[in-house]
Amino acid sequence: MAPGHVAYGMRASYGLAYVTPDVILAWERGDAAPTAGELTALAGALWCSPAELIGAPRTLREHRLTLGVAPEDVARFVGLEIHSYLRMEETGEWRGSERQSSALAEVLRLSPRSFATVTGRDAQLAELLRAAAKTRWQGQVKPLSRLIPVQRRELEDVLHEMHLEYQALMAATLSWGGGASSGSGNAGHEFLDRILEEFWSRIRNP
């Protein structure tokens, strides 16, 4: 199908009179993104589901569209006013309570890893994990358990394991004379750089 065919299908079947071949090309190039309604119409014109167009969902909105759930239904299930939920969806900044976060993960079938990403918590999560690896890991258990839906016992086990591994990497960089060896700390720094991957790879149910 040419862009003109797709645009015509969206105009004829969904009443989107403003959709032109240039709009389709802009979406294909990534210069613009369709709205939820446009995405549904685009999927209809291409005889597929919105989920097939999205691929691997990366945002709160994409997870919702992949499941075909209306924003009003998500807001109602979570216990938020619709305008408040839509604002969080648009900004990518989740401000719900712990109960609302749990409800969000349930209604959108989010894994703990996906939940952290779509609610904009990856940077804070990485900061806490680095602190746990470098200092007392026990002090990071409580803030991490508030941040992500992972069982406390499993969280403690993983943090302890990562702390020991990082400390071993840093100890291995020291020379016999007590000074730093060439390339000192490279392995430890690389471990910290990939801290999120290290963490999620050790969670049994990510």
Key traits:
single chain, about 210 residues, mainly alpha, elongated
Question: Would you kindly provide a written description of the structure presented here, covering whatever features stand out?
Answer:
The protein starts with a helix and ends with a helix. It is an all-alpha fold and 206 residues long. α1 crosses α2 (21-29) and α11 (141-147) crosses α12. The longest helix has 21 residues, at 152-172. It has helices at residues 3-14, 21-29, 36-45, 50-54, 60-67, 71-78, 82-91, 98-107, 112-118, 122-134, 141-147, 152-172, 186-193, 195-202.
Short account of what is shown:
The mean pLDDT is 87.
Q: What is the secondary structure topology, with strand pairs?
A:
Blueprint: H1 3-14, H2 21-29, H3 36-45, H4 50-54, H5 60-67, H6 71-78, H7 82-91, H8 98-107, H9 112-118, H10 122-134, H11 141-147, H12 152-172, H13 186-193, H14 195-202
Helix pairs in contact: 1-2, 1-3, 6-7, 10-11, 10-12, 11-12, 12-13
